[in-house]
Hints:
Blueprint: H1 5-10, E1 30-31, E2 50-57, E3 62-69, E4 80-86, E5 100-103, E6 118-128, E7 133-142, H2 158-162, E8 168-171, E9 187-189, E10 195-197
Antiparallel strand pairs: 1-10, 2-7, 2-8, 3-6, 3-10, 4-5, 4-7, 8-9
Amino acid sequence: MSITTNEKYNLFGDLGVGKVPYNASSPVIAQTISLELANTTGGSLGSGQINLTAIYLPLATTITNITLLSNSTAESGGSHLWFALYDDGRSSSSAGQLALLSQTADQTGATVFAANSALTLALLAPYVTTYSGIYYIAFCCTASTVPSLANGQASSLVAITASGVTIATSVTSTFTNLAPNPSGALTATMIPFYSYVS
């Protein structure tokens, strides 16, 4: 008896995958946090700043799309919005920074990301993972009002972060249409956002 990709990854809840959105347009490969934990707005997002959350991906997996969920605040006055995939720093040219693997096209509309919705963007080039382990999903939006994201709870991550795994981080420099490579200096944060890859 065979099972679908969504069913297979639902079995891996203890690995950080947990419940997945069954209405996804394509099979969910992995997600940053379990969907049931994405129940808060969390910290503020600065215009043009990059926010990153860790995601576990297996070796030789093709990543084509990145999806994020917004919370109650919609984007307005936007000029740039993109998602990107970064590694864990192993191939970065700068110590303590992450290497860019692929990014989506820059979305230049003023209201691309509506409130309480899912936004799926295709990577400019699908990426095949080269190791099993931690990667990072990046979100960047330049707007007068940056959309709020569906986030997890900070308090539940204290033990994980103490173990040396960086779950969520940000780059406080401001960017426009292109994801930087390497990422720039990282500032640790305790609020992970919900995202999945397909």
